[in-house]
Design a protein that fits this description.
It contains 3 helices and 8 strands. By secondary structure, the protein is α+β, with helices and mostly antiparallel strands. The protein has one domain: Pnp Oxidase, Chain A (Roll), CATH 2.30.110. Strands 1, 2, 3, 4, 5, 6, 7 and 8 form an 8-stranded antiparallel sheet that branches.
């Protein structure tokens, strides 16, 4: 899990894919955090991505660090605990002007059933599951 976190953190921006009906939706994201032994992402519950994850929690993430890329398949599970939200905001202080842990808008998802593949043209892919 730490290796996946570190890779995504290093990239800064990753691309999160969801499904809306039968249409894939992809957008840039930038939050990744480990809290309570689980990997988390963050958004606002007023955004379409939140509604898409609620309807179908299967997500994929993709990022490239200039040498290798990562593909992450996971189930996104909402966590309403204030502590989980606050941990994310503490990890990303730049979000505190738009979000607060108790604002009713901040939403965090822990990722479960994760399969992450790190690959490059330099060698065989590495698969990480947690």
């Amino acid at each position: 899990m730490q290796e996946v976190h570190d890779f995504l953190k290093k990239c800064g921006t990753y691309y999160l894919a969801t499904v809306e009906g039968n249409q894939p939706r992809v957008r840039p994201f930038g939050t990744i955090n480990i809290f309570d032994g689980k990997l988390y992402i963050q958004t606002g519950n007023i955004k379409p991505v939140s509604k898409q994850i609620d309807a179908n929690p299967k997500i994929e993430i993709c990022a490239f660090d200039g040498e290798a890329w990562i593909r992450v398949q996971a189930i996104a599970v909402g966590d309403d605990r204030i502590e989980a939200k606050q941990a994310m905001l503490d990890a990303y202080p730049n979000l505190k002007d738009r979000y607060a842990a108790d604002d009713g808008v901040t939403q965090v998802f822990c990722l479960k059933d994760v399969t992450a593949t790190i690959a490059s043209f330099a060698g065989p892919p590495k698969v990480i599951r947690f």
